[in-house]
Amino acid sequence: MADNGRKAETVTLTIDGQEVTVPRGTSLLHAAESMGTEVPHYCYHPGLSAPAQCRICLVEVEGAPKLQPSCVTMAADGQVVHTDSTAAKRMRQGVLEFYLVNHPLDCPICDMSGECKLQDYVFDEGREQGRGREPKRIFGRDDFGGDVLYYGDRCVMCTRCVRFMDEVARDSRLTVVERGSRAVIDTFFDRGLEGAAFAGNVVDICPVGALVSKDFLHKARAWDLDHTPSICPNCSHGCNIELHTRDNLVQRLKPRENQEVNGHWMCDYGRANYEWMNRPGRLEAPSVGRGSDRRAADWREALELLFGRLSAAEGDVALVGSAGCSNEALAALAALGDEMPGRVAQSVFRSPRAPDEVPLPGFPLLVRRRDLVPNADGAALLGFERAGSDDGEGGLEEVAEYGGVVIVLGDELADQGEDFGANNSLFVYLGTFDSAAAANADFVLPITTFAEEEGSFVNAQGRVQRFQQGLRPPDSARPAWLVLGALVAALRGEETPGSAPEAFARLAAAHPAFEGLTWEAVGDRGAALVAEAVHG
Amino acid sequence: MLSECFGDPQARTVAGWKAVGGYEGIARALEIGREATIDDVKASGLRGRGGAGFPTGLKWSFMPKTSARPHYLLCNADESEPGTFKDREIIRWTPHQLIEGCLVGSWAIGASHCYIYLRGEFFESTNVLARALEEAYAEGLVGKDILGSGVDIDITLHVGAGAYICGEETGLMNSLEGRRGEPRIKPPFPAAVGAFGMPSTINNVETLAAAAHIARHGGEWYRQWGTEKSPGTKLFCVSGHVNKPGNYEFPLGFPLMELIEDVCGGIPGGHALKAVIPGGSSVPIMDAEDCRACTLCYEGVEAAGSMLGCASVIVMDETSDIVKQVRRMAHFYAHESCGQCTPCREGTTWATRILQRIEDGRGTEDDLDTLVEISEQMTGTTICVLSDSLAMPIISSIEKFREDYLALIRRGERVGAA
After folding, report:
1. Interchain contact, A181 vs B163, CB within 8 Å
2. Which residue of A has its CA nearest to B371?
3. Nearest residue of chain A to residue B384 (CA atoms)
4. Which candidate from B336, B340, B343 shows the least CB-CB separation from A98?
5. Contact call for A134 and B354, based on CB within 8 A
């Protein structure tokens, strides 16, 4: 507004008898939200335009002749608003009944059941008994392509999906066809959502069970899922996500809102790649000894033996990290290298890189990055250099033949042969899976994946972001920061870090890029690194 | 006045229209200036003939006076209200009357481009208007430097694809822009953000036609007809059970019964009057009692419990099956609902199905309560008034003709069904 300069920045109004002050330009819906009152809504979504067509967010504004849509009515000074007046409630009950007239009420077999806004609102405020006696309109099911299935009968025609594709993906592949109660969401002829890079978001924003994921179809009930705040591990943008888990398996990934990083969205590539977190056949116990001498050991024995070997190790040191590992693990690996008798000759990591970035045009902050790993930037900041090809292979020729000490962290060495490390004076392998190349390892130590531990990554924006533990690790697997941290502490004569926050505090003290950051300050929204350190 | 040349093919030409004083209105408007033209229309008391009856001069005055952005005049010729057929006649007999009205309106609101949005089914009217417009362009009446005044006003014809909702003013704008014909939320109002995002005014065909005459003769002249609150003349579209249905132009305030009995030759077969829908299907139904003292002006019909709307008088005699008529209407609104707003999308269809069930003899008395409640939920809860338009006939018919419904529900008797 051009005349903003002369107006106050805030407005004060009364909602349900309570005075509230909000910034000018705040909708009544958000003003009510700011005081903890949810005004039911379907078509409104904070990441999209507001068509005010679902009509369930209507509230009473004193002085207005009709109920007003709270999603597009701006708060004004002195306004008296009732979200809970008889008129508003009666209207909501009426709208809910309209929604149910043709709704199949197939909650028992609907994936959305338990997190469905129609279910929630009807339970809260709907009529006890429906009055619909007429046969229901039937649309059936439509495969929209990609991971998306459409159940037209459950649709509330909020058009969030159409607007997402138009406004955010800027790839208009969905539309409303027909009109009136025959209106239905559809694709254009044969061209569906197949190949669209961000279409999975339409499933997230669908307030009911109309758009569902084929991958998740009938896989789990919403109320059986645990939600863990995490960071998408599938590219270096680090979209904030939730791991939805059941039976100690990741069932799906869902975006978690963060306007600084990914808005409300995530890409389909990131969303689809979670099965590796559930991969069976994990390394479960530490083992010591090369080749046929290998035997299982408990952690105490393995670490004591390793400590002895490290203190006496001959030759220079090569560190092979992984951009899939947390900052805490990589920093502990770097610290271990520094504590070794020999010089650190190289510290590298390998990771796959996509040929192109995939931007989200309507939310330009979000880009599927070229690095298909979560912590390439963290690894670089902590002193690791990228090696190998864009497939995440090769680049270890020297290390494989190396005469000194080699410590491999989180790199499965899948492309390496059985003679890898045969000449190493000491070869330590910290990983999640056994591999042919680990045959010559003197120590094979099982570590946890990011999903099984707490930690942090640095994303491509130079932002530190924390993730939490969503899965129980197998048997004896331990977080790498703990294993490596214990060794560093023993070499330095310090206390072992007891938690990820403590490990983070140590890395923040040791690396200038992280200076001044605390675990709490990073919180669940992330925090930017010291800019010069990132870009300098 | 408006219908003077109906039936005279000569009036379809520029020469014929000029012979009866045509294009003098725009000439005078250009001479006296924009503000004076608006003042004339304000003084005339002309009210929008599309149904809402909003004062035209006031509407024109909402347009920004100084603005670098283009302004648009939109002429709503998407006449599709059931029972209404007045605009069609204006266009097919007196296309220049409309063109002149569009010029006057465009000039008054500072628009150099006017779009006439025509109902898709108006084949003949569209052809007539297109020919007339071509001639008007050739004569220098439309286009660059009209009548040598230095003013440019273009007129474009746009033919709709047959949706009732595109006659709603903002639905029309969306349709004109190539979008789905879905009404927009107001605010912003068209005078601020209208067609193509620019300040726009939208007027009905009959309104603009009347404005051409007002521009020619001045505001006071128009007030010689009609009442204080409803000045001027109006085309009444009379249909249904009358001996002589058709378009009749009378001063506003004309008595309804006189129109039916005298002008239209009464009800055929000596049947008694049962009901009248006075303003197109979107208004409350009046019973014979309501009709008796009703005068056809905005305030007169309101006093009788309904609305003048676009003055489309649908007459039903005692043989009429009200339940069937209302069901038929409900079907129309359900079919034409754009489907954006939930109460309209679901409510119109639900109401139709309940009415159908009652008509089929499977209704219950509870259904009537449900119908009334659904109708209340469809009133004032949506972006446009399409669902309100169905709610009114449903509520009023159940109020006034409850016996007809009950006869069907209780005894399976169809009142009046022949």
Report:
1. no
2. A131
3. A53
4. B343
5. yes
Q: Which of B341, B352, B378, B386 to mutate to test the interface with A (most CBs of A within 10 A)?
A: B341
Distance from CA of A186 to the nearest CA of B (A): 14
Question: d(Cα B415, Cα B324) in Å, to the nearest integer?
Answer: 10
| Superfamily of structural domain B9-222 | NADH-ubiquinone oxidoreductase 51kDa subunit (3.40.50.11540)
Residue intervals in chain B for CATH 3.10.20.600: 233-317
Domain contains A507: yes
| pLDDT averaged over 10-residue windows placed end to end, chain A, 536 residues | 61 96 97 96 97 96 96 96 96 96 95 97 93 91 96 97 98 95 93 95 98 97 97 98 98 98 97 97 94 92 95 91 98 95 93 96 97 97 96 94 94 94 94 94 97 98 97 95 97 94 96 93 93 55
Boundaries of CATH 3.40.50.11540 in chain B?
Answer: 9-222
CATH number, domain of A384, equals 3.40.50.740
- The token pair at A265 is 């969205």
Domain end among A62, A84, A106: A84
Within 8 A by CB and 6+ apart from A177, the residues are A183, A184, A185, A186
Residue A113 lies in a domain: no
In this prediction, residue B407 has a pLDDT band, given cuts at 50, 70 and 90, of very high
Structurally, chain A folds into a number of domains equal to 2
Q: Does the B233-317 domain belong in CATH 3.40.50.970?
A: no
ipTM given for this complex: 0.92
- Find which of A70, A98, A156 to mutate to test the B interface (most B CBs within 10 Å of its CB): A98
Chain A residues close to B348, C-beta within 8 Å: 180-181
Which residues share a beta bridge with B147? none
d(CA B330, CA A471) in angstroms, rounded, equals 57
Q: Cis bond leading into B188, ω under 30°?
A: yes
Residue A18 in domain? yes
Architecture in CATH for domain B322-411: Up-down Bundle (1.20)
Question: What confidence score (pLDDT) does residue B162 get?
Answer: 87
pLDDT for A430 equals 98
Of B342, B366, B380, the CB nearest to A99: B342
Query: Does any domain span residue A459?
Result: yes
Q: Which residues, 6+ apart, have CB-to-CB distance to A333 below 8 Å?
A: A319, A321, A325, A347, A407, A409, A480, A484
**Would you say B133 and B99 are in contact if contact means Cβ atoms under 8 Å apart?**
yes
Nearest to B336 among A56, A176, A180 (CB): A180
CB-CB contact of A294 with A287 (8 Å): yes
End position of a domain, from candidates A84, A119, A135: A84
In angstroms, what separates the C-alpha of A53 from chain B's closest C-alpha?
Answer: 5
Is the pTM of the predicted complex or chain greater than 0.90? yes
Task: Tell me whether residues A180 and B345 touch, CB distance under 8 A.
Answer: yes
Domain boundaries, position A342 = 287-535
pLDDT > 60? residue B418: no
- B-chain CB neighbours of A132 within 8 Å are 350
